[in-house]
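Researcher: Go.
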Amino acid sequence: MVTPQHITQGRALAKAAERLINYRKDIAPSELMETVRSDLAQLKAALKGRAKADVEPAAKTLETSLHRLDPPNPNTAIRDYVELILVVVAIAIGLRTYYLQPFKIPTGSMQPTLNGIIAKRIDAPPPNLLVRAFQFLTLGRSYEDVTASEESETVSSIQPYKVKYFWDGSLLTTQSPGSVVHNYVVGISPEVLERQLEVFPGATFRRGEPIVRAYADLGDQVFVDKVSYNFSQPKRGDIFVFKTNQIIGIPQAPDGSSQHYIKRLAGLPRDILQIKEPYLFINGKPARRFAFKRVESRQNGYTGYTNDHSGTNSMIYLGDPGASVRVEPHTYFALGDNSANSLDSRYWGFVPEKNVVGKGLFIYWPFTSHWGFAR
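Model: Structure:
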């Protein structure tokens, strides 16, 4: 008698054959379909008779017919991987388009709540490759070490440059007496080189002197929630991301494309705002939310809210303690948490409702004390 294992395998093969017949019946040759049906009927009859000598040959015959009906594809594994990759990409695009969008903090206007790119000169050469790799993964930190090789080198230009086609860096050109030109690729943007590291055209370095010996923390990476504002209005104190097109005080890129800014939403439509250092007033009352109080504290790196100290009256709004501004309908007023060093609505005006992209939700990298939900 046939063993239970043979019965189970035979029945499983019969069920698989029935499914394949239904799947291929409209496209397979009729003669082949008749053969498969006949072989299936023989297997079923053998299973009823429970004779091992009948079941095994019938099963092998049916398997041969099924291979003819649906030949195995040698590239099945490759096809499955390709399909998986396409599904993952489609999901990622969908999430980015409709739900969550990653956003890199480009400047220090929200520090210390959110860090932009922070660069600092160092005295010793960068650490070994293993330490650097660990610090990059955990802190988002990269190192640069460029040293003058001529008796005297003067920086002649610093141009934006894509390092390995995707990294925002600089092409730093120096010239020596005798017209020797050196080009150095540095993984730090020209703006950061000049403002934070004081490397600028005209600076001169002697042989062996570091032109750029520094590290750069690449800034917080934030997921932006693009869904919530479809169901509820933005609230005072939210960290929000918006496009800059049609904001008069912000120049557009030469190609007409819009930038993305991230700030703190301080004023809703028709709110009246006033700054009396270090305090923010909304509709005649002190701002109450935790985020505003934290800035006003002037502790842990916060500057307090500031009026204009430039002497040039460059602020359009809230430049002095007696000034106030009423937020226009269908717009918002944005302030940076790093008020003393933030170009925000005080300088370029209101943010139109239609420009709002979403709410800053979660700092997902690097893994510093900022990691977690944005506040």
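Model: The mean pLDDT is 87.
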